[in-house]
Every structure is written in structure tokens, then in C-alpha cells.
Design brief:
mainly alpha, 14 helices
Length: 245
């Protein structure tokens, strides 16, 4: 099949209908669709479920909510569960903050309601107030050790240590410990969110975290290529350089 045929097939699977002619900007939409669905979607061994998890994570980081809504629907269409979709958005919170994540959750829930999905979804938390640090540390330590605590230990009045504890408790305790997505998937999505944010420093650490979690370097590169249509070439080149280095 040529890329137009591939695009049409992929579009049908994701959005449940044939590509129409855009009423005001048909040329731009044709270029966009053929590139995303006719070319990028064919590179690497990512399936459509993983591609949509990456896409909704990146769109959440970018706060492009109309496109996020469309891809939440696409994620449902390719067989992702509401829980998996929700967890991908929740996973963004330590990287982009709570307000942006709340915006994305509101857009996601609107799509869920339109699809007759009852809210709230089932609780996926596994930690308690008493053990969230210990559970978080047990997840964080094999991947990252005490890197953050060591880096900021000289900040006065123990605030550096507190910052490190916040990371352990929130990112790894409250979020990474949740059921619904594997840690391997969460790490891959983290790389894509960091790419969208232009955060090449943390990308170097998360390259190692991904490899330890079981992702191959080929999978990481394929995930970065999936980001190209949504974040542009410069940010992906910067991410590639960080990963390569």
C-alpha cells in the first residue's frame, strides 16, 4: 500500500470513519494526516495502543485539549481501557503539575461521558499514608538510586532532602505504584512527556530508567519518533541527542 492507503486504513481504525475533506484547510489536513497516519505510524514496533498512550501523554503536556479529546476517543477505539487512558494522564502530573493535568482530565472525562462510561473509575491506588514513602522508594531506588537526594543535599534547612522526599512519595509512591499501567509503560511515557517539555537533562536519567524497566533503546527511539508530529523536529532532535549521549 502507498502512504495514502496506509493513512486511510489507520485513520479508520483510530477514528471509526473515512477521512473527510476539511472545509477550510484541506491541504494542511491532508499533509498532516498522511504524515502522522501514513508514515510515522509505520515506524518502529509500537502497536496502536502504545502510540495512543504516547500521543495523549504528549498532548496533555502540551495542553492541546481539542486534539487530546479526539485522541482519547481514538484510544478507546483501538481497545485501551478507560483506566489505562486515565493512568496515562495521571502519570503526567509529576512532570507538568496538577493544574495542567486537571485540564486534561476534564477533557478526558467529557469523552468518557459521551461514551457512556460511568465515573468515577475504580480506585487504582496501592499505597497508604503510612507506606507511600517506603513503596515509592522501593520503586525509585532500583532505577535511580539516591541521585536526587545527593544532588540537592546542600540546600539549607533540609529543604533539598524534603524535595527529594516529595519526589519519592508523589511520583513513585502515589503515581508509579498505581495499577492500570506497568512501570515499564510509565517510564516510556515519561520520556515522551519530557521530550514535549524540552527537558533534556532528566531525559538522560530516564534513558537508564527505561532500560532498567525493560524497554529497549529501539523502543525509546520509536516513541520519540511518535512525538514528532505533535512537538516538532527541534524538540525530538534535542531528545535524540540526550538519549544518544
Amino acid at each position: 500500500m502507498n502512504r495514502t492507503d496506509v493513512c486511510n486504513k489507520q485513520y479508520q481504525e483510530l477514528f471509526g470513519g473515512e477521512r473527510g475533506v476539511h472545509p477550510t484547510d484541506p491541504e494542511f489536513m491532508d499533509i498532516l494526516q498522511k504524515f502522522i497516519f501514513g508514515e510515522v505510524s509505520q515506524v518502529g514496533e509500537l502497536d496502536n495502543k502504545m502510540r495512543e498512550l504516547i500521543t495523549i501523554s504528549v498532548l496533555t503536556a502540551l495542553q492541546t485539549l481539542p486534539q487530546l479529546s479526539a485522541h482519547v476517543q481514538a484510544a478507546l477505539n483501538v481497545g485501551l481501557t478507560p483506566t489505562q487512558i486515565r493512568e496515562a494522564l495521571y502519570n503526567c502530573a509529576p512532570f507538568i503539575g496538577f493544574p495542567k493535568t486537571l485540564n486534561a482530565i476534564a477533557a478526558m472525562n467529557e469523552v468518557f461521558v459521551k461514551n457512556g462510561i460511568a465515573l468515577p473509575l475504580k480506585d487504582e491506588a496501592t499505597v497508604t499514608e503510612d507506606n507511600r514513602f517506603d513503596v515509592g522508594h522501593s520503586i525509585q531506588s532500583p532505577f535511580y538510586g539516591n541521585e536526587i537526594k545527593e544532588k540537592y543535599k546542600d540546600i539549607p534547612n533540609g529543604m533539598g532532602n524534603k524535595l527529594a522526599d516529595f519526589l519519592t512519595e508523589l511520583c513513585f509512591g502515589d503515581f508509579y505504584s498505581r495499577t492500570g499501567l506497568s512501570i515499564q509503560t510509565r517510564e516510556l511515557l515519561a520520556v515522551c512527556v519530557l521530550t514535549a517539555l524540552g527537558q533534556t537533562g532528566p531525559l538522560k536519567a530516564h534513558r537508564e530508567g527505561n532500560l532498567k524497566a525493560g524497554n529497549t533503546i529501539e523502543t525509546i527511539y520509536a516513541a520519540l519518533l511518535q512525538c514528532v508530529p505533535y512537538v516538532g523536529f527541534p524538540l525530538v532532535f534535542a531528545a535524540m541527542d540526550a538519549i544518544k549521549d
